[in-house]
Design goal:
This protein has seven helices and 17 strands. By secondary structure, it is an alpha+beta fold. GO terms for molecular function: RNA binding; tRNA pseudouridine(55) synthase activity.
Length: 307
């Protein structure tokens, strides 16, 4: 089995538990996810199977999208609903104009300190493991990028006001930290009361399948849940090679211009490409290489010989 699966993770499951369940279901060792989703959160969790695991590095950096609810006036030790309440400030009056001004500070490139309840490693241990032991470790701020942060609904007439928003962000962003930092800037504290990942690169929530749905399809020998490896590589330019060049590429040999099917024109060639057989089979991912004499070729980086 080789390919990608768009899994809809239930709240309460860890990303690792999803991988373990599918590994047992398919009786396959080579399987993994493309980025941890909090146990308390639901949503899109792309899974790579077989040779699909060889493209994880190209999926993990793609933007993520979330729908989140922030509750103001309450602080928790985990910055989410699963944590211990530290303090409350009931009746906080949330000014929409001030809220919008502060939200602007979270758009674009920002620095963010990973929360203690995160999967970041410190001396071989996950931070959340150290947090369970009651330890607090100094963490360095990381640069992340918030592409979009849009308000969907603001409920002000509550003891603890709530904000529902959509966030599009880069890899490594912790939405709970955005929430907690926003609460601190507003002077009232806040915790993330709800989170669902709505997209991870091209994987969308509306197309995701639960583990139960995947199991039912598997039992019926319906493998339509398995997406092709190149499903998530569509932003990489594609070239078709001549039939005579196919065995050379599968053997890891460079592809010269003469091996490309059709005219290549005089435009600058892309630095990184997908290489396909005339029949549409994905053969390899290749890097552009040139010589001092002006000659160039594509050197296969990852070859998919058994697809």
């Amino acid at each position: 089995m080789n390919g990608l699966i768009n899994v809809l993770k239930h709240p309460g499951l860890t990303s690792h538990e999803v991988v373990v369940a599918l590994r047992r279901m398919f009786n396959i060792k080579r399987i993994g996810h493309t980025g941890t989703l909090d146990p308390g959160a639901a949503g899109v969790l792309p899974i790579c199977v077989g040779q699909g695991t060889r493209v994880v590095e190209y999926l993990i950096n793609k933007p993520k999208e979330y729908r989140a609810e922030f509750t103001f006036g309450i602080r928790t030790d985990t910055c989410d609903a699963g944590g211990k309440i530290l303090d409350k400030s009931a009746g906080f009056k949330l000014d929409p104009l001030i809220l919008n001004e502060v939200l602007d500070e979270f758009r674009g490139e920002i620095k963010q300190v990973p929360p203690m309840v995160s999967a970041v490693r410190h001396q071989g241990k996950r931070l959340y493991q150290l947090a369970r032991e009651g330890k607090e470790i100094e963490r360095k701020a990381r640069r992340i990028y918030i592409y979009e942060l849009n308000i969907l609904r603001l409920q002000r007439g509550l003891a603890y006001p709530r904000l529902l928003c959509d966030i599009k962000c880069s890899k490594g962003t912790y939405v709970r930290s955005i929430c907690a930092d926003l609460g601190e800037k507003l002077g009232c504290g806040a915790f993330m009361s709800f989170l669902v990942r709505t997209a991870s690169g091209p994987f969308l929530l509306e197309n995701a399948l639960t583990l139960e749905e995947i199991k039912e399809m598997w039992m019926r020998k319906d493998l339509s849940f398995m997406l092709p490896i190149d499903y998530a590589l569509r932003d990489i330019p594609a070239l078709t090679v001549k039939e005579k060049a196919v065995p050379h590429i599968l053997n890891g040999q460079p592809l010269a211009p003469s091996g490309i099917l059709g005219g290549i024109g005089k435009n600058k060639m892309p630095e990184f490409v997908r290489l396909y057989s005339p029949g549409g089979k994905l053969l390899s991912l290749g890097n552009y290489c040139s010589t001092d004499e002006g000659e160039w070729h594509y050197k296969p980086k990852k070859v998919f010989a058994s697809l």
